[in-house]
């Protein structure tokens, strides 16, 4: 999608912090800074805050979108499909479609990172539904979980 006009247009979107939806979980907080619905589906960007020792997803991949991780603060363990590395402020990991990856905070300090994914699928729906499933306390059958992950383009390895 390219802009083909010659004069520019008034189309920038500003979002004050009070408009950003935050999904608070016991050990993590997801700030949906720029969901795909705000960026015309071009990308999505979340801030992911983790408490000390907060686990993250197990190794997985996505078929239809890439993900990038930029560490803001603390130490985040990142898996690039081959090895785990300890990333600190300013470190970056790009994961193309199909790339195996995972993350977590194994340190004794809080950590924060930006997650950017492109194109901007409604990734916030995955995290909201996951939180609802976990908070319900219900035991769900394996095929229900498999359908949930497939519907959200998340495939564990």
TrEMBL record:
Pfam families in UniProt: Cupin_2 (PF07883)
SUPFAM superfamilies, per the entry: RmlC-like cupins
Superkingdom of source: Bacteria
Gene3D superfamilies according to UniProt: Jelly Rolls (2.60.120.10)
Residue ranges occupied by any Cupin type-2 domain in the UniProt entry: 47-116
Matching InterPro entries: Cupin_2 (IPR013096), QDO-like (IPR053146), RmlC-like_jellyroll (IPR014710), RmlC_Cupin_sf (IPR011051)
Coiled coil: none
Annotated PANTHER family: PUTATIVE (AFU_ORTHOLOGUE AFUA_8G07350)-RELATED
Name of the featured protein: Cupin domain-containing protein
Classification lineage: Bacteria, Bacillati, Actinomycetota, Actinomycetes, Pseudonocardiales
